[in-house]
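User: Some background: our group keeps a shared notebook of sequences we're curious about, and every so often someone picks one and asks for a predicted structure to add to the entry. Today it's my turn. The entry only has the sequence so far, pasted here. Could you supply the structure so I can complete it?
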Amino acid sequence: MSHSAAESTTAPPTVDRGPGLAGLLASCVSDPARVTTDVPRRVAAAHDASPYLFTPQAVVRAASAAEVGALMAGARAAGLPLTLRSGGTSLAGQAGGDGILVDVRSHWRTAEVLDEGQRIRLQPGLTVRQANARLARYGRRLGPDPASESACTIGGLVANNSSGMNCGTQDNAYRTMESLQFVLPSGTVVDTAAPDADEALRAREPELHAGLLRLRDRVRASAGSRATIERLFAMKNTMGYGLNSFLDHAGAADILAHLMIGSEGTLGFVGEAVFRTVPLLPHTATGLLVLPGLAEATDALPALLAAGARTAELLDAASLRVAQQAPDPVDELRGLRVEHHAALLVEFAEDSAELLAERVAAAQPVLDRLPAVTGTALVRDARVRARLWHLRKGLYTAVAGARRPGTTALLEDIAVPMERLTGTCEGLIGLFDRHGYQDAVIFGHARDGNLHFMLTQDFDSAAETERYARFTDAMVDLVLDAGGTLKAEHGTGRAMAPFVRRQYGDELYDVMRELKRLCDPHNVLNPGVLLEDDPTAHLRNLKSVPQVDPAVDACVECGYCEPVCPTADATTTPRQRIALSREIALATAAGDEERRRALEADYAYAAVDSCAADSLCVTACPVTIDTGAVMKRLRAERHSPAAQRAGGATARHWGTAVKGVRAALNTAHVLPAPALRAATGAVRRLGAGELVPAWADDIPRGGPARPAARRPEGAQAVFFAACIGSVFAPEGASDGSPGSTAAFLRLCERAGVAVTVPERLAGLCCGTPWQSKGYTDGHRTMAARTLDVLWEASDHGRLPVVSDASSCTHGLEQLPGVLPEPDRARFAALRFVDSVAFTAEHLLPALPEPRRLGTLALHPTCSTAHLGIDGALRTVAAAVSEEVTVPDNWGCCAFAGDRGLLHPEITASATAAQAAEITAGTYDAYASCNRTCEMGMSRATGRPYRHVLELLDEATA
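Assistant: Of course. Here's the predicted structure to add to the notebook entry:
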C-alpha cells in the first residue's frame, strides 16, 4: 500500500480504435483476460440493487490504482463514461452506467489492522462484515453500521457516506475517516496520509488545488450558504456533495478527501481508506416498546436518548401489521389489535455487565412513564434479542417477498428535524393512501429523524411510471417543506439527482457543479449520478422485472448473496444467474433471437454447470431464494429420460458402483499419468464433461470398504459411514492415516459409547450425488432405500443417525423432502447428527485428555454452516490444538462433491484468498470435516487437510 502523497499513474494509452474498445481497454491493464465486451458478462454485471438498469459496453476488473487511472484515460479517449462498481448494493442507481463498468471488488480485498484495532486500513472490495470480523478480536468495529453490512463494501461505504442504526452523524464514514488514497480522473494518485499531501496536490493539480480553496472561501463568505450547510448536515444527509467539507477543513487535500466521502464515484476512485474505529459494546439490553401512536413514539425519543439509549428504531402501524404475520410473532405483538400504533425498538449497550445494569436502572423511570401498550421490559437474552431484531430487519423480507410478481421493491430514505418527524410520518402515510401504495411501510432510525419507507412498484407501463412520478414529486414537497433532506443514508444516485438543486438552491448547486468540473473536467465519471439538470431523468432506464420462475421471482437483486457465493470471481453469482434468466425472458419476448441465443449458450456453463450448488446463498438472501436448488433443478430438466433411468439404476446398484470407482482409482494410480490425462480429456470432449473429471495427480486412490454391520447392546446412535470415505482414500493413507470412519468408531470405543452400523450400508448414500447433478429418479430411489434401512436401524427414530461427512449429514436431512407425503411423514421422526456435533456433545467429555498441537488451520464447510455446527467444529478443533485459526477469508471451497474435479477452475477461484492466507503462515495441522472439502483445500494450499476426528483420534490414542 503506497503512501506517496500525489503521483501519476501509468500514461494514458495511445488511442487506436482499430482493435476496438476491448483492445483499447486491454492496453490499460496487465492481464487482457480481465476485460470483456461479451454480451452475457455485460448483461450480468449491469444488474445492481437499484431500480435502474444500464448495460455497460465493457466490464473490466481493475487490479491497481495505476490500472484505474489508465482506464479513466481510456474512457476519456473512447468518449465513454466510466462507472466504478464494488458491491452493487446501492439503491439509487449510482453503481450502474452504460459505458465502461470497472469492477473494484475482485482484486481489492486487503485489510490491515493498525494500533491494536484502533485504526484499520481497508480496500474497497471488502464487505463491512469482513472488516468488522478482523476488528472483533480487538473489541472494536467500524463506526458506520449499515443494515446491509453483510454485502455492502467499503467502496460503497465511502462513496455513499454510510451510517446506520447506531452511528448517527458522529461515527459515519465522513467523521471516522482518517486518510484516503484516491485516483483522480487525470490519473493523479493522492494519499492524504502523507505529510506533504497538500503540497503534492498543489504541484500535481494546481488548478484543482486553487479551485478548491476558491470554493472554500466562496462558501464561507456566504451567510446563506453556511446556514443551509449547517442545517442540512446537522442531520444525516447524503444528498449532493458533502459541502460541509468546506466548513470543516482548511487545506485543499483534506477538503478533497472529505468531498470524496459521499461522492458516489463522480470525483475519483478511492482505492484505500484508513478509519478510526469505535468500541464494540458486547453487553446489551433490548426492548420493543409499543405505543398508542406515532406522536407518542416520537415524543418518547428525547427522554430515551437522554437516558442513554444507543438505538431507537421506529416502526409504524403498517410495519407492525406485517410483523404480526410472521410464523412466530414476538410476544409484544401477539393478540394486539393494531390500529394507529407505533413502536420503538430501543437498545442500551455498554462494555461491561455492571455498566449496563447501571444504565438500565437509570433509564427505568423514563421507561415507566411511557404510555406503552405491552410493557417496557428490556431483555438481555441473546435469543430473545435476536427475535426482536429479526422483526425489524425482517420487514424488508416480508414486504419484498410478498410483493406482486413483476414489481420492484423500492426502499427509500429521508431525514427531517426531530420536531417534524411525526408530521412527516403522517404525511407519508397520507401519500401512500393517495397514490395507491397500500403495502407501504415506514421504519427507520428514529434517533436521527431518519425514516425509511418501502413500497412496491411496477415500471412496465406508462401509467405506473407516472403514478410513481406523482408520488415522488409529492414526497419531495413534503420533505423539503419540513426542512429535511431527500437522502439520508442511501446516496443521491440517479433517483434524487434531479432534486439536488431544489434542496440546496442555485448558489450551492453551482458550487457542486464547479467542484465536478474541477475534478472531472471531461465528465467521465458517472455522469447523471448525484447531479442532473434533466427533471425527468429519474424516470428513465427503469428495470423491467419479468416473471421467470416462481422460485426466483421474489429476487430484488440486492446482492446479499454475492459475498458468500464461491463462483463470484469465476463465473456468475446468484443475483447474476437470476438476472440473466430475466434477460433471456426479455430477449425472447422482444424477439431478439441473437441476444437470446448468446445468453442461453453462456448460461449453461456460467450459471448452471459452474454453480457449486452449496446453497449458502439462501442463508444470505433476505427473501430466502435458494439459487443452488434452482440450478440443480435446471440440471435435472435437461437430462433425457434415458439419463434419468441410468441415474436410478446407479442408485439401485450403488454398492457395485462404489467398488468400481475404487478399483478404477487404484488402477489409475499405476498407469502413466500422461496417458490418463489424454484418455480422460478425450472422454470429456465426447460429451462426458459433467461426469468424468480430467485426471490430476492429486486425485486420491480408492478408499477402504465401509464398516460391517454391528448392533451392540445399549447403542446410543446409528453410524451412517459416508460413502465418500470409501470412494476416496483419506489424506495420508500411505502413512497409515485411518480416515474419518475408522477414527469415529475408535473414538466411540474409547469413550465407551456403543453405536449401531446398519445392514446393507455399502449400497446406501445420502443422495447428494444425484441431487447435485439433477438425477431426480436416482435421488428418490436412494432416498427410499436409505430411509427404510435407517428407520429400522434407528428403532423408528429413537436413536440419532450420525454421519462422518458434513455434506452427507446435510444430504440426509433433505432426503425425506424428495419422497411422497405419506413417506415424508413416516420419516419425520428421524434425527440426523453430524459426527463432529456428536463428538463434541457425547464423546469429548468421556475421552482421555488430548495431547494438543500448537496450531491448527480449520476449514468449516458450507454444510456446517447449514447444519449450524460451526461451534461444535471449533470445540473439537480446540480440543486438539492450543490455537485454532479459521481464515478471515474463509468461504465455501466449491469442491462440491465432484464439482471441483469436473471444474477445477471454480475451486481455484473460490479458494484463492483463503489459500493465500493459509500459506502465508505455518500450522502444525490442517483440518476440516468433509473428505472432498479436504481434497479441495489440500489442492488449493498444498497442505494436508484431514478430518478433525482423525486428529482427535490420534491425540487421545
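Suggested note for the entry: The first helix runs from residue 20 to 26. The CA atoms of residues 458 and 464 lie 6 Å apart.
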